Amino acid sequence: MEYYYRLTLLSFWVFIILCNHNKCFGCLEKERIALLELKNSREWDPISSYDPLSTWDDKKEFDCCVWERVGCNNTTRQVIQLTLYRAFRSDIGYLNASLFLPFEELQYLDLSDNRLTDLEGLDRLSKLKKLHFLDLEGNHFNNSILPSLGTLTSLKTLNLSGTDICKGSLTQGNISLLAKLVIVDWKSSSKLKVLYLGYNNFSRGIPPSIFTLNSLQALSLVGSYLNGPISYGLCELKNLRDLDLSKNEFEGILPPCFNNLTSLKAVDLRGNQVYIPSSLISNLKSLEFIALSGNQFDGGLPFTSPLKSLSSQLKFLDMSNCNLNMSTTDLLKFLHNQYDLRYLDISHNNLHGSFPNWLVENNTRLETLVLRNNSLSGNIQLGLVVTLLNYFDISNNHIQGNLQTDIGVVLPQLLYLNLSKNSIEGTLPTSLANMKYLNYLDLSKNSIEGTLPTSLSNLKELDTLDFSNNRFFGGIPESWFLNLKFLISLKLSYNSLSGRIFPGLFNLTSLRVLRLSNNQFIGNLGRIPSNIWIFDISQNQMTDRIPSIDIGKLDYLRTLILRNNSFHGPIPLELCNKSSLEFLDLSNNHLSGIIPSCLNLTSLKYLHLQENKFSGSIPKAILQSSNLITLDLKHNNLSGNISKWFGFLRNLRVLLLKGNRLSGSIPLQLCQLKNISLLDLSHNNLSGSIPPCFGNINFGKIVPGEDVFEKNADVGTGYNHFEYTDLLQMTGMEYMYVDWIYSEEEEVEFMTKSMSGAYKGDILNFLSGIDLSCNQFTGQIPNDIGALTMIMALNLSNNQLTGPIPRTFSKLKHLESMDLSRNKLTGEIPSELTDINTLSVFNVSYNNLSGEVPYMKAQFSTFDENSYKGNPFLCGPPLQKPCKTITESTTVTLARWSASYGMDLISLFASFAASYIMTLAGFVLVLYINPYWRHIWFNFIDTCLSFMFPFWSEAIYKVDNP
Ligand SMILES: *[C@@H]1O[C@H](CO)[C@@H](O)[C@H](O)[C@H]1NC(C)=O
Ligand SMILES: *[C@@H]1O[C@H](CO)[C@@H](O)[C@H](O)[C@H]1NC(C)=O
Ligand SMILES: *[C@@H]1O[C@H](CO)[C@@H](O)[C@H](O)[C@H]1NC(C)=O
Ligand SMILES: *[C@@H]1O[C@H](CO)[C@@H](O)[C@H](O)[C@H]1NC(C)=O
């Protein structure tokens, strides 16, 4: 028994000794203690977010090598890697570097994205002889750490991106400090091979000391406010393999000496304004990675010389938006003999010719192909090669024909497929269902027809599906709703889809965006997915009430558009507290009842309730929506006054109350709506006078940058395709992101010119007008209206307005339409109005105007009788009625001439005529009274004529026969 006991004890000790040698128990004890000390050295607020180091002192895990973010050598079990990004979110902001000293074998230290301002005793890390990787990106060090960094001679990779080392005061001193660091401490013996300095501020230029780091193989200065020409100094870095200068403001021509950087494998100049000589590509034979998007080429470009001069195969080519303007035949010449492309982006270059099918066929490892925004035509017709393509964007071209039937067999790896804005026809091939990894499918704006294929429910990974603006008909397959569990965005607008909206829709719990507008769906709304943000079913044939309970459950609802259907009943009270709602459009339905007084829509910006049967007064509750930009209540049965609290809606741009039964006068407080650009109060029973303070309102005088109407931008998904994580080691990294940009396209109907038009999106930023027509307004038109110089439409017709047309109206230099008809205006039409040369509609008919119609200037000569009729005392063309007497008319005309010639022609003509008549009358009188003088006079005339005749005939002969 004792023997066994001793044997066990002995083997235990042997085990301990052996294990201690081979580190069976894991990391060194001192390393374990140091890690715990590191953990305790920082402050962490565990409530606010996830603490990445929280499990470090978990007693069960004695071996710290298995701890998160710790990496050990598999044989020695000593810590060699510490990945401590976002681990020290303390406000103290400094860390004692000597905490890392126990890790004698440490090779890799990542301290990125902590909010450190100082690393105390950083120079002591020079004792860690194996430390070759140090990542300090995204901290806020001041430049006091620079000297100590210089002592870390074992470093091969240093990431100082976004560390603000030169933030703000980029003084010469700071630069020289970096220079000193580089020259004195790293010198030529420096082993530094990779230097990341991106996202710092180098607006004063690249620190020259960097050019002395001649062992440097990779340098990143991405996003560092560099400007002007690219420095020749970079050519000193003869060993450079990877150079990233993207996202700067470089200009000018790329230095020719770049042709000497023959080791360059990867060059990234995206997002600069540099002219790139084509010789760059023909000389640098090692290039594999070329990213030049956004820059310009010098015309002829490398496409004349095929890329076969390269010693290796090109892997990455990004030349989007380089103004290449070339054909696919040129592209063929250039990329002939390239078989190993992984990434190709030539979007936005006016690339023409037929779609380069050969590109996909010969580069079987191609993963990303982006050719959007070009003029490619022809079919996509890929031969039977199964490709690795996962990102395929040919949107906005002129691709024609049917999709090839086996497209899903040829492109089975696709994650992203965008063929929108082309001319693709025919039905969808069933093989689409083979693309089982597909996340993103956009075929919108084509002419694809047929029913929606049930088989698409196999695309279980789909998060975005856009088939809008095609010719699909039939219902939405039930199976989609059972299987497409990850769908975030579903857009089927502008098709001919029909049938009911399926209860199954409710199963799509991920769905954020659902757009089904402009189809023929019938029935009631059913249950809406509870996480929805954007729900648009406008322009269908939906009936029944708006389901109150379901609406109440939509906690994230931002856009609800039920426009142009046949919904009836009241607005459900459950809408009252939707604090997330920004866009609500229930217009053109048969909704009735009052507008609920419980409305408390604090985020609401656009409210459309027009063309319904709402009654009662406009509730004060609308005031809660202080961000309101559009309020459209046109064509309802609303009554009561326009309340003075409207003045509180300071952001209001569009107020449309046309066609109700509103009465009372316009409250002066309306003039506080300084941002109003469209105001329509027409067709009501409003009375009183037009407030002169209207002249204080902006009406279109919008400050630039204040555009509140935007084009549609949906919450969607996208890809940040191809990033490289290590400059020396390019790695494809596809990841999907959800795009949170959101803006709903606003549409407003307003009468400008003589037509009522619907204005959409950003155009609304430029539209302005007032319509007060068809009310009972009395009094004079205030002169102050003339201060609304940006206004485009003014309609005051069909009121009881009196007095003259203000001369100040001549200042309305953007006015396109002026309607003052059917009032009781008097006086003349001010001739100054002819200064407005934008007018295309002018109507002053049926008033009591008098005097002559102004017709002298171009715009006014286009208005016909209808503009003026019904004014008994108005005369002159285009009216039939001439102005009273000729003299009067002549006088008027002369008055105009004299005004335009700047002299008193009337008195000139008058005195001339008077003396002429007097002389002639006296002469005739003498001849009549005295027969002798009469005889002499006629003899004299005869003699004169016979004397003159020979001269006359000769002169006339000469003229005829020169
Ligand atoms: C692990 O340690 C052994 C022995 O010291 C060494 O030979 C080996 O290169 C180390 N491995 C790594 C990945 O550092
Ligand atoms: C240690 O071994 C594991 C498992 O074999 C491996 O995943 C890890 O990369 C190795 N670590 C190092 C530093 O070599
Ligand atoms: C390229 O290098 C050669 C030889 O080293 C040199 O003569 C030439 O001037 C360099 N070219 C440029 C543009 O710097
Ligand atoms: C595609 O590859 C084939 C065979 O490898 C070759 O004959 C053809 O010229 C290549 N086409 C292009 C455009 O490179």
From TrEMBL:
Pfam families linked = LRR_1, LRR_14, LRR_4, LRR_8, LRRNT_2
What does the similarity note say? Belongs to the RLP family.
Q: Which GO terms describe its cellular component?
A: plasma membrane
Q: Where is the Disease resistance R13L4/SHOC-2-like LRR domain?
A: 402-517
For membrane topology, the record states: Single-pass type I membrane protein
Under SMART domains, the record lists: LRR_SD22 (SM00365), LRR_TYP (SM00369)
- Every copy of the Leucine-rich repeat-containing N-terminal plant-type domain together lies at 30-73
Q: Tell me the leader sequence span.
A: 1-26
**Where is the protein situated, by its record's location annotation?**
Cell membrane
Keyword set includes Amino-acid biosynthesis = no
Instruction: Name it.
Output: Uncharacterized protein
